[in-house]
Amino acid sequence: MSDEKKEILRVSLDDLAEVLTPASAAAVTINSTGARSYGNIHEPADPTILAQEKGSVFLKAWVYLGIAGFFGALIGWGCAEPWFVDGQGFRWGNILLLPVIVAVMCIGFAVAESIVERSLRKGLIRVGIALPLGIALGFFFNMVANLLYGIGLGILSAAGVQSYHNPAVWIVRGLAWAVLGVAGGIVYGIIGRSAKKIGYGALGGAIGAAIGGMIFDPISFATKNGTVSRAVGFTLLGMATGIAMGLVESALKDRWLYVTAGPLAGKQFILYKPVTIMGSAQSCDIYLFKDLEILPAHATLSQRGDRIYVNAEGPVYMAGSRIHSSRLLENGAVLQIGRYSFRYQEKPRG
Question: Distance between terminal CA atoms of the chain?
Answer without folding.
Answer: 86
